[in-house]
Design goal:
Blueprint lengths: L4 E5 L2 H14 L5 E5 L10 H6 L7 E2 L7 H19 L3 E5 L3 H12 L3 E5 L11 H12 L2 E4 L2 H9 L6 E3 L3 H13 L4 H6 L6 E5 L3 H4 L2 H12 L4 E5 L2 H9 L3 H7 L2 E4 L4 H10 L2 E4 L2 H10 L3 E3 L7 H5 L3 E3 L4 H10 L16 H16 L1
Helix pairs in contact: 1-7, 1-17, 3-4, 4-5, 7-13, 10-16
């Protein structure tokens, strides 16, 4: 049966955003899921589907890793074949990954409407692949689901005026759904021998940091001098870069940075909540730190989530060793907290309602 909606996903952030959307729309609208395989290993893929209780994808395209051009091009070819066969009324893409761009581009070329979840988010860093993806997808989309008022303003400033919906952030929906469930995974603390608020949590995966020996060295040297142990769930790209730049041996000699395998969403929530501070270049982790009221040190010069900086829970330090070291010791977050910046946890239901109205109009 031809589905009304096809969701196109392929990477960890997509899965986390998809989970509450599927819970909301299931039984309301016929849909199928296309998984591009952008994240191809178990820890970054099937693990998330299992623990988020997502249905198995209807299509797994198996694209895997590669350069941006290769990855996006292969996705475009394979997604187009699926859409030509299925001919849905609407394609939903999420966030800012290469999967997001390829899914939107394949759909519009076939004159299929696109809905973009997390529309209007901007860091103003045009050298970032994610920023290019966001801008292009927004200007191709028929339905723009904005997570914050700032995102709405960004779209309007770019001349987009129609079909913008301020719905809230689906990642906040996911957090509210899974936060209590994550506590069942508290044994990760015992497994790692950790005490609450007695360690730092580090994630590094963006190309601007992993492709630069200077930036990656600065980050790792700064955290190596921390007065607290540093837990580092390392992305495969980061491990490869550390090996290429001969940095793993340096970290091992320092003695206080513990590299562990990538973790699922629920275990990461546990480690985030119990960390003294979080250091990251991930947009999603910045928000999760805010939801949990844990001080966040962002290893970038800019962020797409300035709301967290303005509220005092996030500080931008780039890859400057002295700024990172200072923030590790002195940045303690804020007493302010606006729980409604990212909505009230009903973003997925609002998106489902808008999709249903759109499909009725299409009929």
């Amino acid at each position: 049966m031809t589905p009304d909606v096809i969701y196109i996903v392929g990477a960890r952030p997509n899965f986390i955003k998809l989970a509450p959307l599927i819970k909301s729309i299931k039984g309301e609208v016929d849909f199928k899921i296309v998984h591009t395989g952008q994240h191809y290993d178990y820890e970054m893929n099937e693990l998330f589907f299992r623990e988020l209780d997502l249905p198995d994808p209807d299509y797994h395209l198996g694209v895997g890793s590669g350069s941006h051009g290769y990855q996006t091009g292969e996705m475009l070819i394979r997604i187009e074949r699926v859409l030509e066969g299925e001919r849905p009324k609407l394609v939903i893409v999420l966030g800012d990954t290469n999967t997001t761009l390829a899914g939107a581009l394949a759909a519009v070329k076939l004159k299929i409407d696109v809905g973009h979840v997390e529309a209007g988010v901007r860091s103003r860093e045009r050298f970032m692949p994610e920023e290019i993806n966001r801008v292009l997808v927004d200007h191709m989309s028929s339905l723009l689901f904005a997570p914050t008022q700032r995102a709405v303003a960004n779209l309007q400033s770019e001349g987009i005026r129609e079909n913008i919906f301020l719905v809230g952030d689906v990642m906040f929906d996911s957090f509210l759904i899974y936060h209590d469930i994550a506590k069942r995974y508290y044994n990760i603390m015992e497994e790692l021998g950790l005490k609450p608020k007695d360690y730092l949590l580090l994630t590094v995966h963006r190309a601007e940091n992993t492709d630069s020996k200077e930036r990656l060295s600065n980050i790792l040297e700064a955290v190596s001098g921390s007065p607290w142990e540093v837990i580092f769930p390392a992305h495969p790209r980061t491990i490869a870069a550390m090996k290429r730049f001969s940095l793993i041996e340096r970290i091992e000699r320092a003695g206080n940075v513990r590299i562990i395998k990538p973790l699922g969403y629920l275990e990461m929530l546990v480690l985030e909540e119990n960390a003294k501070k979080i250091l990251t270049d991930s947009g999603g982790v910045q928000k999760e730190a805010y939801f949990l009221r844990v001080p966040c040190i962002t290893l970038r010069e800019r962020t797409e989530w300035m709301e967290t900086v303005e509220e005092g829970w996030n500080v931008l330090v780039g890859a400057d060793k002295s700024r990172i070291s200072d923030a590790i010791v002195n940045f303690d977050g804020s007493e302010r907290y606006n729980q409604y910046i990212f909505g009230n946890g009903g973003a997925s239901d609002r998106i489902t309602s808008i999709i249903k109205d759109f499909l009725r109009f299409k009929d």
